[in-house]
Amino acid sequence: MNSAQRTQTATTAEPQLPLRYAPTIAVDDAAEAGPQRILVLGATSGIAEATCRLWAERGDHLFLVARNADKLNVVAADMRVRGAGYVDTAVVDLDDTTKHAELLAHAVNSLAGLDVAFVALGVLGDARESELNFAEANRILQTNFVSAVSLLTWLGNFCAQRHHGTLAVLSSVAGDRGRKSNYVYGSSKAGLSTFVDGLRNRIDREGVRVLTIKPGPVKTAMTEGMRSSDKFADVETVATSLVKAIGKRAGVVYVPGKWWIIMRVVTLIPEFIFKKLDL
Ligand SMILES: NC(=O)c1ccc[n+]([C@@H]2O[C@H](COP(=O)([O-])OP(=O)(O)OC[C@H]3O[C@@H](n4cnc5c(N)ncnc54)[C@H](OP(=O)(O)O)[C@@H]3O)[C@@H](O)[C@H]2O)c1
User: Fold this and answer.
1) Candidate from 49, 121, 259 with most ligand 1 atoms within 8 A of CB, to mutate
2) 3 state SS of 23
3) Could you identify which of 82, 151, 238, 252 might form a hypothetical disulfide with 212, taking C-beta atoms 3.0 to 4.6 angstroms apart as the criterion?
4) pLDDT of residue 1
């Protein structure tokens, strides 16, 4: 199906998705057989954009969702230039969960199916403000946890019904243990990681892969200006690990891999010592 035909499919899509697309090939075979149909939620994220570049270069089909139209247009144009087989976009504030079902149905119809959904949206928020003011804590929890849960509930059921697909979710090492410096953000990611663990254990037997990605600090807009940010991982390193992990059967991946060891040590520190540390 060419781009023009797909665009036509998108414009005639029903708002609520009927069970229209049955799996035709398994994900492993699909990777070898041809382009993957990939939905990216939070496509203007630094990590997501670097990952999309790799997907575009191998000719995959992309449906990109973000809330900033200008930034999204730049990313979409770049993906077309890099060789993506198909690119469609939607501008949506994903904090509005009432829009999710219609958006996801439209995306799947536009892609004529779904092989991979990548949930990348997130906010760091203002840690100090979130300690003092519930409105800021609520904003962080809404984007990082509630909105992601809403998206993944729809996507998990969609993929389980078809016994097909991979859901890749950007959580964070910050969710592995509450620290005094960012426990509201950390708890939003802890909740997300636990939700994704449970979802994996529910739908793995249906043939759906659910991958939790836990990056350590990465050089993106989110961490710009932070102390020692020049030592953070590059988005390209994270993107390469992420694309590899999606091609394997891993459930939880730390990127870079050294963060698995670091977080094992961090979670073993007794609480009476941990509360004295400035972390
Ligand atoms: N950078 C790190 O050190 C790091 C480490 C661990 C985990 N992570 C996680 O990795 C993910 C990507 O982060 P990043 O580092 O790539 O940061 P980023 O460049 O700041 O990307 C975050 C993206 O989420 C989007 N977003 C936020 N709220 C949204 C909403 N309501 N609707 C639609 N899009 C929304 C942002 O859109 P706008 O541009 O419109 O704001 C932005 O594109 C996040 O979940 C983050 O928590 C990052």
Assistant:
1) 121
2) coil
3) 252
4) 40
CATH number of the domain encompassing residue 200: 3.40.50.720
What pTM value is reported for the model? 0.90
Q: Let me know: does 171 contact 196? Beta carbons within 8 Å.
A: yes
Q: Could you tell me the residue range of the domain that residue 138 belongs to?
A: 36-274
**Cβ contact 101:17 at 8 Å:** yes
Strand arrangement of the beta sheet that strand 61-66 belongs to: 86-91, 61-66, 37-41, 116-119, 166-170, 209-215, 252-255
Q: Mind listing the pLDDT tens digit for each residue in 167-176?
A: 999 999 999 9
| Total tally of structural domains belonging to the chain | 1
User: How far is it, in rounded angstroms, from Cα 165 to Cα 156?
Assistant: 9
Residues 6+ apart with CB under 8 A from 73: 89
* C-alpha span between 23 and 138 (Å, rounded): 38
Residue 24 CA to ligand 1 center (angstroms) comes to 33
Mapping DSSP to helix (H, G, I), strand (E, B) and coil, where does residue 66 land?
strand
